[in-house]
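To whoever picks this up:

The parser on our side crashed when reading a file containing two proteins. I've narrowed it down to the boundary between the first structure block and the second sequence. Both blocks are reproduced below exactly, byte for byte. First block:
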Amino acid sequence: MLTPARVELPVIEETVVGASSAVSWPAILAGGAAAAAISIVLLAFGAGVGFSAVSPWSDVASTTAFRVSTGLYFIVMAMLASSVGGYLAGRLRGRWRGVTPREVFFRDTAHGLLAWAFATLLSAAVLGSAANNIVGGAASAVSRIAGQSPGLLNGTIETLLRGEPGATRDVAAATATRNEVGQIFATSFQSGGDFSAADRGYLAQMVAARAGISQAQAEERVSAAIDQAKTAIDKARKAAAQLALWLTASLLVGAFSASLAAIEGGGLRDGTWHYQV
């Protein structure tokens, strides 16, 4: 059976031309760029097969199976990309002069970690919007409620303002009412999700006028809509939190993989990584 073993060879006196420190930045930048590029490719592939990481507010993203499968894909993606980047950082660096094997081991580990760090920063810059959607969590969920496109609460607001079938509707007035209701919901959720009695009463009046129902029926519909909105917001927060935890785990796995790969790449570079029978 072939088992990997690291063989300690005598230190070879070889000077790195133009080197002023123990850090080989060209190798680190090359490894980091490769890791970032592979991450983007794998992220695009994952989105293509259904692991969309940029829309955690959809109905599909709220399912447990989706969150787990996406989290596992994050980890696999980080492991593959970071391993390639770390290996290149270790393999492409120069050989140090008068350095003990233990020091070489430490420096290779550091090179892999630095390559992973550079790749992470580069990926965050390129994929900033996706990262904000993932780690923004509750803040992103609430902000998407406001404006002309309420987003997360579209269905809730439509149900709240639904009138009798076949009734004549003023499109401009309906849009203005919908936007106003969205703003009230957004303001209330930004304040903790507590709707004041004045806001509830005003919403009930709007619903009664818009849907053509009694004030009591409108108040019941408003209460049901608020409960539905709170449930939707809570699901979005939990989904974002779990995806953020998976992302954290993938980053840690990526750092570990890059360090190990850099050790192997550095050993192959120096000729100290062999297989013994």
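<<boundary where parser fails>>
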Amino acid sequence: MVELPALSVREGMAMGMFLMGLAACAAGLWTMMAREYQRTLRNISAQSDRLHARALTEVGVVPIIDASTKLVEAVNQLIRTAMGVGAFLCLVGVALCGIAYWMMV
């Protein structure tokens, strides 16, 4: 029977931190690479263009155009926030991996 070497507490903590770092990097990349927000922004922009064409003929559509403009700006801000969160998660993941490496050396 082969005996496995026992892990020390420090090695276990380092392996745990390294795995958490990898998970944080993966979550950050997944957040930045997800194109669901951009697809939504394209659809809203297409509808907004249709409303602008209709606004030239109907006066009652102007408040709807203002609302659609604010909606496009809100989705744009949502995309910026998602990219920032993704970049932060990647940086935290790299830092955790670096600390885990430092603990093992």
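After patching the parser it read the second block fine. Residues 12-104 form one domain. The chain has one domain: 12-104.
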